[in-house]
Amino acid sequence: MFNPPEDLKEVIDIVVKHTVWRKKECINLIASENVMSPLAMVLYLNDMMHRYAEGKPFKRFYQGLKYVDELEVKAQKIMGELLNTEYVELRPISGTIANATVFKAMANYGDKAVVVPVQAGAHVSHTRYGTLGALGIEQVEMPFSVEEWNIDVDGAVKLIEEVKPRLVILGGSLYIFPHPVKEIAEAAHSVGAKLMYDAAHVLGLIVGKAWKNPLDEGADILTSSTHKTFPGPQGGLIATRTKEDYKKVGKVVFPMFVSNHHLHRLAATAVAGLEMKYFGRDYASQILRNAKAFAEALAAEGFRVVAENKGYTNSHQVIVDVKGHGGGAKNAQLLEEANIIVNKNMLPWDRPEDIKNPSGLRLGVQEVTRWGMKEDEMRQIAEFMRMVVIDGKDPAEVRKKVIEFRKEFTKIHYGFDIPREEEERLFKIMLHPYEVF
């Protein structure tokens, strides 16, 4: 019988409690999260997590990597096919590191970068407060149209022509409509700037053919994480249109920002890529249907959902303004007490001092979609949220309903179904090699 010491028992208990709570009892609407399939998770737990690699495949500074090299090249090829390019860099260990790599490779200290405003969705790494500022690159915000809930194209083009930046950055974190890549790319290229598109939130929609590929629309470089609408492990990715830009970022990611690049995630990334190859169209299209249904249901329940005039959303995200109900921070906490996990978020009309309690809640449906939920479930979730935020019901009472609701959604969809015995065989190999061999 396993009888661990008390401190070890505490560690195990915390992890088990978290896993049961988040995977079996909660409705997760964090727009930047997802869950891997059982196959991806099993292969994530491989021996490569103990190993060290510096440099590119077959040009390493360490020995013992012949299978790592094969896997990394395979994963690059899978992601390249999905993104319609030969040039994929998987060594960044996060989306932020991918962004930093591109900033450093494409601009110098004192140069300018034209970006989306923070309140309108830019990721913090795109700003003076994040890696852009840390590298000494000046942030210049392009105009944003609240009416269109998108970049003011004419204003942005004029700004780019006046500022003549080295870098223009599209994409972001608060993100309900595609940014106008083609128009901004033309303006950027007319002044010799590179256009970088941060696709972290929408990579799964892009490879699932629900959104246009920015590289096909004129972006020079695409950066991303691999764990949002793309349902892989946490990590980063850079894809370029040209070999020249690929070489530039490769020289920066190592040795400047990454030494060893967490090799065990390559297998899970490859599996997630293959899942998107075979099931991605169905997954991405259901995400869009769910997001639209969720937005409409929230509006019907009395929430102020932004961009009503534009149909609310064309992405995985839905944005609600809850300032009239006490603000984003208060309601995010109340919803967590009901086992509905969301995050507070700045909206374009918020002031910098509103950051601790902004107006908005950012909601994402990509994870609940992967658990098999569809339009009817989106309407049920909207009702749960109304009970807490608008009706002021006790979150503990709503939590009981949420836990009961989640009992129907325990299987991950849009992935490979493998027999239980094969899953157990792989699991034993990954965790108990000496027993297997």
Quick recap of the structure?
This protein is of the alpha/beta class. The chain has helices spanning 6-25, 38-44, 66-83, 95-106, 131-134, 153-163, 181-190, 203-207, 214-217, 243-257, 265-300, 328-337, 366-370, 375-389, 395-406, 420-431, 433-436; strands spanning 27-28, 55-56, 59-60, 87-89, 112-115, 138-141, 144-145, 150-151, 167-171, 194-198, 221-225, 236-240, 304-305, 317-321, 340-341, 343-345, 360-364. It is globular and about 65 Å long.
Which descriptors would you attach to this protein?
Aspartate Aminotransferase, domain 2, globular, alpha/beta, four-stranded antiparallel sheet, 437 residues
From the spread of the alpha carbons, the general shape counts as globular
CATH topology of the domain at 41-272: Aspartate Aminotransferase, domain 2
CATH superfamily of the domain at 41-272, by name, is: Type I PLP-dependent aspartate aminotransferase-like (Major domain)
The major pleated sheet works out as: 7 strands, mixed
Measured between the Cα atoms of the first and last residue, the distance is: 24 Å
Quote the average pLDDT: 95
Q: Could you give the order of strands across the largest sheet?
A: 4-12-11-10-9-5-6
